[in-house]
Amino acid sequence: xxxxxxxxxxxxxVPLSQAIATRTPMTVDAATKRFRQGDSFVEAIKDVSLSxxxxxxxxxxxxxxxxxxxxxxxxxxxxxxxxxRVVVDGTDLAALSDARLTYFxxxxxxxxxxxxxxxxxxTAEENITLPLLIEGRDDLAGQRLDxxxxxxxxxxxxxxxxxALSGGEQQRVAIARSxxxxxxxxxxxxxxxxxxxVSGQNICRLLRELSDEQRRTIVVVTHEPSVAxxxxxxxxxxxxxxxxxxxxxxxxxxxxxxxxxxxxxxxVPC
Length: 270
Ligand SMILES: Nc1ncnc2c1ncn2[C@@H]1O[C@H](COP(=O)(O)OP(=O)(O)O)[C@@H](O)[C@H]1O
Ligand SMILES: [Mg+2]
Prior knowledge:
Blueprint: E1 2-7, E2 10-15, H1 16-21, E3 26-37, E4 40-52, E5 57-61, H2 68-76, E6 83-88, E7 91-92, H3 98-108, E8 109-113, H4 124-133, H5 138-151, H6 167-179, E9 185-189, H7 197-214, E10 218-222, H8 225-228, E11 233-238, E12 241-247, H9 254-265
Helix pairs in contact: 4-5, 4-6, 6-7
Bound molecules: adenosine-5'-diphosphate (ADP) and magnesium ion.
Residues 68-69 line the site of magnesium ion (MG).
């Protein structure tokens, strides 16, 4: 029996066994991470478990300091947890050396940050293709670049450097860069945090479209209900722990989601 997988805008038949094997791009199991702050330690995430299914669009929401970025860094293998396990696309990250982890991350995980993190001396297209060029995969970069520029509306801006692009365009370049290696999942940390509200909503719409059209697996960290409402599922964090996890489809708009979020993080004592 075959299972239909939609990826990179292309539909292809793959054996069901393979589809099942790749169904969970990310599992975090009982992860804990502490940081030293002066004489004491702060537990940034505590016993956090989370699974992201293939093709899901998930928002992780919580107040500043709740551990969202730490969790995202642990999921990306940018930070190694002290306890627990992180499995990405079937590979336990703890089993990889730092060098192999860097290589693995470049292939499997697309990263998008609040500050875009583009290289200022490179053009938009050079920034986008860099993850493949570093590995000498120039042919693949050549094949994928034009369709990606086209899909993200960047064709006319391809030879511009970041300082000649608007914030929204820079973030679209960063999203294109996150997709060029066709990763198992895309992780975005406050991707609209440096943008005005219109540009921010446009970035959310783009992520939603990539999720719908290409079944991209996307995790967005945010503290804004107006961003989280674009996802299908919302995970709420407080003080380093996951409080709850629910479908956003239960809420008609960002305001309704915000009210529920407040009820969850600050329950009124009865
Ligand atoms: N590199 C670090 N060194 C020390 N403390 C850190 C470090 N990174 C995060 N923390 C602490 O961990 C907690 C969670 O931080 P963070 O994951 O950045 O939260 P969020 O992204 O939700 O704002 C905070 O108390 C923060 O001060
Ligand atoms: Mg953060």
